[in-house]
Fold each of these.
Amino acid sequence: MTVRTVVTKAGFTEVTGTGYDPRGAFRQGDREVDGVADPALRELALAALLCNNAVLRRTETGWAVDGDPMEGALVSFAIKAGYDAETTRRQFPRTDEIPFDSRYRYMATLHHGHDNGFVAYVKGAPEQVIAMCSSQYTSQGPEQIDLAHWNRMVDVLGANGQRVLALAKKPMPHSAHDLTFREVERDLVLIGLAGLIDPPREEAITAVAECATAGIRVKMITGDHAATATAVARQLGLERPNSVITGDRLDSLDDEAFRLAVKGTTVFARTTPEHKLRLVETLQADGAIVAMTGDGVNDAPALKRADVGIAMGRKGTEAAKEAAEVVLADDNFATIVAAVREGRTVHDNLTKVIGWTLPTNAGEAMTIIVAILIGLTLPLTPVQILWINMVTAVGLGLTLAFEPPEPDIMQRPPRAPDAPILTGLLLWRVIFVSLLFAAGAFGMFFWAEKRALSIEEAHTVVVNAIVVMEIFYLFGMRHRRASAFTWPGVLGTPAVIAGIAFTLSAQLLFTYAPFMQTIFATRAISVADGLLIIATGVAFLLILELEKFIMRRLHPQLEAVGMTA
């Protein structure tokens, strides 16, 4: 955050510099001006420094602020105007303070000034502070305040996306040692305005756009001026940025009108903590799942009430962090969207693991059950089933947990919060694939019997056929919507490649190693048998991809709501 523009009675002054770095200059039009020599700028900077609790410090990477970022920007501005922060604060010791509160929207401090006198400095929301002023500061002395002029200046700064603060002062009696609201809220002398910029990060703008495609509505709730809120919302690319409602307007609405306003409005300006809490409750009553961000003590009730309270880890207060479920370590909105993407990926991968594990196990069980029911020789033995589960669960099923996000993961609308993981479509897939596994196992067993292979050879062929089908099924499950016959689908991930390599190595040992043949009653198989087993896996995958294609054509809404929603 940086002070970019200051306004005094003499006009606009541009402040140069970046961030909290206290190096910069003042420009009026095309000429540079001396901030030290300009009485109005010096007085404005003095008010910004004294009515302030922030401290700037130099770090290895630049300048940082201890305290509120906005107050840090004001300290930087005061140093640019020629003040030494520590020396000036010692020269004008503070004797009392009215802390900022969103209810009255200003902060006031009392200082022992020159000639044993006292002066109060006030900073806050411009419409609040200007209303408390009866005069305006000039180098010749106070004069009658021009309210229309200052309100116009506030609108100009706000329209440029700048957060606006008004700064004022009031000479106090020699006997004054404390501040009262009654004294502060009347007869102030308006010194000027400070326009601060807090430009959105590029990644935040991208994240907001990503939210729109993901079906996530982003609403901005701010204490800033409506014009400032509109400009920032436009920079961020929020939906309907010009549709702004202020806190005063919200207070005048009944419950139904409030609900409609909240539903159709994106930007809320000059709000209070009570408004934030009511907004959260109204959105929840309308069926929305609400994630609320905040950093202040006053944000705690809304953070607590939201489905997901997200506190700022850097500038957030302890009260906000305690009330929230999530503490954002980098205070970056893009990190929230990245967490949504990660959450969707985890849910996707969980569904893939379930969709892969259930039919493979059910297919094996179905093969045994059917063989027993119709009195056939078992196509594989119990110990061989244990081998399959042990090898494939580790070597194949576990790899799905490391799948990267699918390309359309943030183009899908949110799933219903009560949507089960085992949906009707997934249940159909489990049954269909289980039947394919059983058919493949029986087909290979009958083929082996027809060729008069020994029972041990037949079992070995069936076990290898099931494992190969599970490998090909892994490729089919990696992309639940898109075809598996793409370069990303065929090449796989490092985890998939490692898993398949492990599984194939284990199967070679299972088939050809003498000690494994003794343990599992297996026999070596011929190259021709091996090629037929691979062909069975290819045919299995082709049938799955055909089923996936047909389902997309019969149910095009699956592309919109997701294969498991």
Amino acid sequence: MQLTDTQKQVISHEGSPLLVTAGPGSGKTRVLVEKTIKLIKSGTRKILALTFSNKAAEEILERLKSNLSAEEMEYVNIGTFHSFCLELVLDRGNMIGLPASLTVIESEKDKIELLKKILNKVGHQDIKEKSSQSILNKISKYKQKFEYPSEESEDFIYIFEAYNNLMLEHRLIDYDDILFYAYRLLNEKPQVARMYNRIYKTVFIDEAQDLNEAQYDIIYSLCINLKNIIMIGDEKQSIYGFNGSSSHYMTERFLNDFNPKHIIMKENFRSTQQIIKASMGIKNYADNIGMYPLEGEVLIVRKTNEHLEAEWIVEKILEQVKNGNPWVENTLSYENIAVLARNRYVFQELEKSLKKHNIPYNFRTTTKLLESVTQEMQIFENGLKFMTNPHNQITKRTLDDVILFDDRLSVNDKKYLLTARPKSGVEVPVQVFESIVKAWSIILHDNESFIQALKEIENTINSIEEDEYIKQNLELLFKDIEMWKSHWRRYCTLVVTGNRNLIHFKNQMALGKTSYYNHEGVTLSTVHMAKGLEYDVVFIMGMCEGIFPDYRATDHIQLQEERNNMFVALTRAKRVCYLSFPDFRFMPWGSEKKQKPSRYLIEISEALQEEADIN
């Protein structure tokens, strides 16, 4: 497909900051890729592109790899904000007094254990009675804003300082620290920012409407003297206000600070005409141009209750997979279909119906690090943590609960871990325990032999498969082993042989880079998790007042974000969108409650100039 005049304008622009407003389906990723290729081919030095998800970064990288040589790819650095900032902190952290060999804390349990050590020293009951998680959340909010809690109580200030100091004592940093320490480096050590300005002559910021204050401050510190900074985003898709994100940083701060040229990409190449009309009913942007020739379909469906709504969706899915859809040229598979909802609990009846009809489905969830389930692989996992960070006393205590070590050796001695033997009462079969220690030995000798180490454990389990304890845990053990294999294989696709090491692997895991997402079957997703995705056929269910928009949205900003959520949900559909709602919902206390159709349904039916069974 040929580039439009607007797309060409973005690609050819250079020499001054640029803001690109790119609506859904406007070819934003293609433009970013084409502009990068043009810059590299014309001899521009290194390019830095920052985005918000590993998936978005990978998509851009894959497209570039098919157009640039391996040598040319060396001039491109594409990643998430957190991955870029972590690299900066690990490489230069010593300049602001950070210890070497920091690792990212992966487990909420470990954070709580660290906090409890602090709370035990605080005598005031009002602090101790608060939940550990709520205190961690409060600490996190201050870190995210790069603020010191000077207005808080003396007890909280003590907890805040002691917790952060203890993290560093254990050579640990968390997600918030990554950005905080990167910001400190760029501001306290201006030579660091100057160094990056020499390296990167062009910086792209993708999905700029999702920036929060901390991320914008980092960009400002990094790019204030840079001419070629390009922000690409769409304020109508700003839906992460609960995380402090706001399109204000793109539409106001960036304009004031950098005075960029502003180009609007109006064309929509993704969605059919009816979907564009419906989305314009939600966010009235009269200059949007629908480029897809097909009319498509948007249908509003009313059912008596949630059960009948779910059954209708399932019947429609089965019918379309069997017979196809007139608006979809190719064979329609389950993978081309998504069901979206404002909140996850809306899917309860649908899940039952999908299972009843044997329809495969997957849930799009937040990228959370999976932890081993079985005791054997938990021991293996904690051994890995200890190898990468022997200063982490939380891991050491966890190991000490089940393992005896030869304490004549220093914990920093590589052989220390290999002296492990199980404590009496630990259920792990001796042969399996010995295979775990052997696996550690293999990894210590050569990090690249990670799969071989896992096979050592796997082969031992296979050799004693008839053991009663192993029989009971066999399936879970193999699932845990396969999970670790999957993480390592994914890591190997990201990092070339010779550059792989255990610390880097564990940090990449903590950033979610090694997670594998299951795409099989119909996708069920909240609107927030569907951002950036597209499907031929989309169902949006539970379209009732109080659900969509959410009843918790009360002020203008919150209601505006709910409207953005609806806009994002509609524009995930390429050809067809079905919107459904029940007249009655079952409440947790057992009774049925009459529902009011979402205000958005009325606006959509008016935009389509069609009557719908809503009133």
Amino acid sequence: MNREPSMTGIVQPIDAPGSGHAGSARRAPLRRRNWRQAVWSVPLLGLLLVLFVWPLLMLLIGAFRSKAPFLPGEWTLDAWRVAFHNPGLLAAIWASVQLAFVSTLASLAIAIALAFVSERTDLRVRRLITPCMLLVFVTPGIFYAIAFTQLANPWTGLINDALRHGLGIATPWLNVQGWWGIYTVLILKKVALTYLFIAGAFRALDSSHDEASYLSGAGPLRTFLRINLPSLAPALTSIALLGLIAGLQVFEPILILGGPDNIVVIATLLLNLLGGGAGPADYAQASILSSLFVAFVALIYLGQLRTLGRKGYVSISGKFSRARLVSLRGVRTLVTFSVLGFLLVSFAMPLGALLFSSLQPYPGVYSGFSLDRYIGVLQQPRVVEAIRVTLVLGAIVGGVVMTLGFAVATLARQLGRRRQAAIRFATLIPLAMPGVITTVAISWAWLSIPAFAQLYGSIWLVALALIVTAMPFASQIALSATAQISPSLSEAARMSGAGPTQTFFEIILALAAPSFIAGWFMTALMVSGNLEVPLLLKSPGVNTLAVITYNLQSAGDYSMAAALLMILMLFSLLLWGASQTTLWAFRRARHLNNQRNKQRLLSIEAGTSGGLGNE
């Protein structure tokens, strides 16, 4: 017990923080805060376990069952004895690994070059790179692959027809079907994601490091290779990890471009094992392959954390200074034409091919252009129903997954490092599981409970699977947004009597509204282009635009499929416009509210100073 002399000269005891009435008074608010936090966090943690951990456990259980976990069966190890003696399984794994590494390295090199041109040079065309890459990124994978089939398929591809009619070349010069087409489409699509990921980090680098390098005699290229790239190691390794995972999970390009050559990778093999092929479903082998895939991705992720955790990569200073723009001098023309050529191949030509094909009466016919295909596709009841289902799923899944992502990010900030890492790992589990695996795991988890068996074939099971699939993306947006909000704001709200729920909605979401709305829009686009979940669940009344487009493409109706894709692109633009309008209205309302608060504060200060002057 501490003691302090009193005014009367007698030593009086001072209560320690944990003693007497003062200690009890201090513990009471703490107990009340812990109770409120438990009431808010326990259901959220339970929801995370149900959505992410439980399906993974059911997936592991399926590897030791003769039937799906929700069906009567026996415990057995037979699948483990025969799994790795299947030559088709080993070939699919090798094809996926090769595709993942080659596409990741190629896209990373191209994206780094584009980021350097965009952020470090004075070329005029650099302003076109970011918007074009953004549009390529928001284009769903299935639509991007179909655009290239319209452009360069060996029968009615627009480029081949132009060469045939213009130059008399009878043999198809370009063939997007097969491995070359798959590599091209996947690399171009991944370049957009990689560029958008590293461009912001490139822009945030401390320019004083560049200036110090220039003063030491190093040129722009040497500074870029010796200073900028090592400083970007965390961002580059993170996007490389995501690229490897995306390459291992690739599904739509294989389904669209690999069908004629019977190309099989992990995702399509899983679809065949689960009954998508001619043979009976083999749930145990699908579970084994899925479990090994998750373990492999987890090892890569842990290796990245362990490697980067030993080094420091501080490259952002508190004082901002714009980096010096490099003049390319002699290679300016070459770089300009290279950038324009890449944007032409990756963005302008695929989008133009879709638009042109949607106006054709039939593929290969270059007369009678009209809007009949648009009118015809909108007159089909299944298309109208698919549009309605896609919009409903996009709105529901986008709102739910972003709210859940921000709730998880807010909860993680209140916990210790180990618990925070565990929660983040739980939300990243779907990142290590292809869409086919995630759909199977969720179906097994929920259908194993008799009360939820009726969800099969309904829009709610599809929405649940899409929420889990989109959660890693939403959690990354939420973590980035909440990291910019000072914890003192939440503490001030709690000290003012606000509960956790009120603090979350009125402080966290209000301040992070731009990121929340942008994430909602991006998630809705991901939902509209997701093919694995609705295709695998095979619900007759829950067909989305992606499923209808794939069916039209498979039936050979390319013009109708192109018209439907352009309609979906129009919906995407409308959603983007709605999100931007909402952001503008929110910012305008917040600005007006701040102005009113300033005026009120000034009037109060003026009244106070006037009263003191009168006194």
Amino acid sequence: MALLGAGSLLLLLLLLLFGQSLGAPRSFSVDYKNNCFRKDGKEFRYISGSILYSRIPRVYWKDRLLKMYMAGLNAIQTYVPWNYHEEFPGRYSFSGDRDVEYFLKLAQDIGLLVILRPGPYICAEWDMGGLPAWLLNKKDIVLRSSDPDYIAAVDKWMGKLLPMMKPYLYQNGGPVITVQVENEYGSYFACDYDYMRHLTKLFRSHLGDEVVLFTTDGATLNFLKCGSIQGLYATVDFGPGTNITAAFEAQRHAEPHGPLVNSEFYTGWLDHWGSPHSVVSSAAVAKSLNHILALGANVNLYVFIGGTNFGYWNGANSPYAAQPTSYDYDAPLTEAGDLTEKYFAIREVIKMYHDIPMGPIPPTTPKYAYGAVPMKKLQTVLDALEKLSFSGPVKSMYPQTFIDLNQAFGYVLYRTTLPVNCSSPTPLSSPMNGVHDRAYVLVDGTAVGIFERDEVLTVNVTGKAGSQLDILVENMGRINYGRNINDFKGLVSNLTLGRDILTSWTMYSLSIDEAVSQGLLGENPPTLIDPPRTAAVTAPAFYGGSFIIPDGIPDLPQDTYVKLPNWRKGQIWINGFNLGRYWPTRGPQVTLFVPTSILSTAAPNNVTVLELEGAPCNSQVCTVEFTDTPILNATVLSGYKQYRRLYAKEDLL
């Protein structure tokens, strides 16, 4: 037998010494004895930040994640909104802006671990808390419970999602260190332990026994009573100014041993139409964060970047108050990913406890003011009805809901006729508060008033028997928190004219996004003249314009913001992309973020506006204006309601 050479002997010794550690499997676990997490056997503490990929264009994922990494974070936390990936039963979308796997890979490539929150319910100020609206096809379904129909849908969805996520678990070579089951369940009325036990078994069956599964609840015993359950590690959430010692004592009641974890440390707070933009000082955030880290606790900053509720994805709270398009949240990174004073204040705190990555921080992306774009009236909604209603009319004795009509979002037109002469103003009423959420009332094509859920339940109308009565109903976003998440849209109860119930309805589901993207909304013939604007509101109508971005300037296109001076309320699309809702007369948001990814230098950029209440176009030139400065805290209605005070959860039980 040949003798080993010196080099071979050295190699053998190295293999004997280090082979076991080189081949050791990756692991992430809870160390109950030493009150910490362990990553690959070593004590580990995460400092994380929340980012929701569905609120940020894919082209900007890398920029936002790099900024989070350079702030000193070693992890991110993200939700998976079920309704974003399965808008219709069995039809899944995981491409483009919905490519969650690419997002996870990108986070790992940058050096960030991931805390995954796949629901099935996420809250997140997202439409219906991430639950798909089609669950409401069973009208009496009890969401977030052991209701067999709900469980069957959850099992099918998680049977699709969780096997996709399994390769990304840390022990399988991926970035995901922990996975949340449900979300803030202790704030929900059902308190169904069988439901939580079912989810625990479901997650384990797909993800295995090694992954750390956890729950998150408000930091009081009341929330933890129904939110925590054996087999899931209980964590808490709270914001700046909270009694941190008391908050973690509540967690210790549920978890006597193990790491301290604040899964949602609030860097700002959410907004509602009609309330001032929420602002939380950098000093308050930094002070509480320092206290949390000094205790050796793990923390996730909710949110580190908020992003934008493009399209119709915003949620709402109860009593009904919809959230605006911007989800800026006064976060360390703005809606557009800009660096803020709060970003650097947080970075300085983290620097006291961990090494900060070396190198430059990606700069704030430049913004460009493209200026004013003249707009022309195209067609009213009534004129364009045949182009907008791809599925055609549906007739029934009584009005049907959006779900009955197989429509989740946007707008539905309800049509009937006045059964009697209304020579004097006659109350058209929703006695059971059944207009969800806002409706524009027209008689023979003339706008006569607006219904608003919880606020305006009667509109006076005049007209002859047989006059056409049209009601355009807008879904303003489904309630995302509390017991009222079974939020049906449309005319969800009968309307009365005087004392009589209106019947014989014809309903049109409107496919406005498709009509806009296909360029179906042309101008009216020039012979048609708009009636003078005499009423407080005018008929909902579409307006169009375009602008050219020069292709000879290397840095263009750039991000921008659009504002609509003297416009009132509606929806705006650019190049067929639904930017979201505008409502400057209600506030606080005035500008909408326009990411460069939807702009073009190769062709004119088309702007389409659906103005619901009254455009400034009849008596003057009307424009939309592209600016480089956001306005998120402008005038709000007098007597506004503060629907949800800072960090409060108990008011929505």
